[in-house]
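Work Package 4 report. The design task specified in the project plan requires that, given a folded chain encoded as structure tokens, an amino acid be chosen for each position. We show below one input record used in the internal validation round.
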């Protein structure tokens, strides 16, 4: 944060009261890249739940303030500000210890820099690397501050267009950053699965199939539709994708999609296999498909109908989770069905997330594991929902 405060002060000193000419785009772009990479230390401030649920207000942070200040500068001042920022980056880098080799864990030494990024060389295996090697942030032109900002607005349900505009980034850049974050959350779920225990509520909710971002073929089974359109058929048809969800009353939430329309026993088993503790008491709305969990996992299933709901017997918690999912679905202005399970991983964490959720997700994308690094090609092709 000292870096941002110092740069902001330098920018304010350069501002004049007369109309300012615009500097060349390349020079301003260079400054934004430098600023985005200048903050490497984690921001330790605590995020309360009011901040997590806020939308536009949360985006007015120091990074955006700094960019807005720079855009008001006359051209003659930009070189001074860039030189000042580069000096701060160099000083900030020198103060950091050398991270161990991500390939073998041995000690390493500094090995020069490229495009302002410090490189290291392992003393044992001889491989070179940077601080973000084997993390979700690898090969990114942006630093921790920008990544944390993208995490924050993703958690708060801000659309890609609004995020790109607020952070002065290209839509494709924000899209790739967001989906790298989502893929990292999916990978985390595979390595450390959510386990529902004690008393859990389970039920299904449905969203319309979406081909957002994809041109529909002429021979596709339905006509293209705009955001906010309704299904052509009544009831739960194959136009809908099912989201099967479970919420522990005093714990975590979990959601996944595996089929269209109403899920069967095999579908429910596929969703919750490996995500239930021992002797779980499952409360559901009477769907026969959930009885499969009692048979396969040794759980006790209680069916709650409209007539006997009340007191302990209710599914209000999971219905609240459904409302949360659909609310975020609308905030994002729809989600392409092929990416739905990526967002389900996010929804599951955010619904029962605590005040440190943003920092926890930042820690996940910074975790050094070659299996958790995802390229832009992975963003387009990995773990897509095909139903």
């Amino acid at each position: 944060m000292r870096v941002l405060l110092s740069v902001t002060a330098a920018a304010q000193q350069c501002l004049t009261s007369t109309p300012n000419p615009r500097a060349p785009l390349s020079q301003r772009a260079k400054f934004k890249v430098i600023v985005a990479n200048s903050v490497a230390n984690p921001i330790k401030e605590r995020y309360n739940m009011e901040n997590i649920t806020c939308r536009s207000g949360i985006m007015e942070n120091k990074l955006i303030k700094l960019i807005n200040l720079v855009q008001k500068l006359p051209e003659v001042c930009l070189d001074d500000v860039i030189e000042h920022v580069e000096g701060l980056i160099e000083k900030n880098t020198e103060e950091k210890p050398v991270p161990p080799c991500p390939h073998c864990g041995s000690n390493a030494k500094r090995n020069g820099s490229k495009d302002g990024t410090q490189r290291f060389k392992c003393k044992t295996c001889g491989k070179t690397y940077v601080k973000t090697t084997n993390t979700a942030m690898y090969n990114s032109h942006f630093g921790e501050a920008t990544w944390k900002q993208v995490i924050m607005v993703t958690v708060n349900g801000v659309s890609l267009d609004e995020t790109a505009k607020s952070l002065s980034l290209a839509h494709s850049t924000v899209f790739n950053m967001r989906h790298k974050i989502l893929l990292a959350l999916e990978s985390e779920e595979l390595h450390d699965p959510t386990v529902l225990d004690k008393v859990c509520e389970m039920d299904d909710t449905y969203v319309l199939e979406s081909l957002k971002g994809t041109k529909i073929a002429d021979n596709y089974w339905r006509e293209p539709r705009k955001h906010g359109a309704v299904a052509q058929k009544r009831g739960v048809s194959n136009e809908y994708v099912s989201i099967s969800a479970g919420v522990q009353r005093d714990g975590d939430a979990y959601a996944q999609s595996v089929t269209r329309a109403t899920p069967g026993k095999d579908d429910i088993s596929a969703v919750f296999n490996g995500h239930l503790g021992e002797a779980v008491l499952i409360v559901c709305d009477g769907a026969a498909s959930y009885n499969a969990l009692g048979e396969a996992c040794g759980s006790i299933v209680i069916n709650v109908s409209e007539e006997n709901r009340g007191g302990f017997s209710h599914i209000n918690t999971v219905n609240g989770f459904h409302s949360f999912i659909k609310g975020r679905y609308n905030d994002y202005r729809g989600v392409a069905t092929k990416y739905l399970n990526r967002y389900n991983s996010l929804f599951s964490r955010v619904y029962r997330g605590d005040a440190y959720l943003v920092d926890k997700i930042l820690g996940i994308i910074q975790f050094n594991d070659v299996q958790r690094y995802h390229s832009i090609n992975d963003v387009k092709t990995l773990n897509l929902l095909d139903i």
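The first helix runs from residue 2 to 14. Validation will be extended to a larger panel in the next phase.
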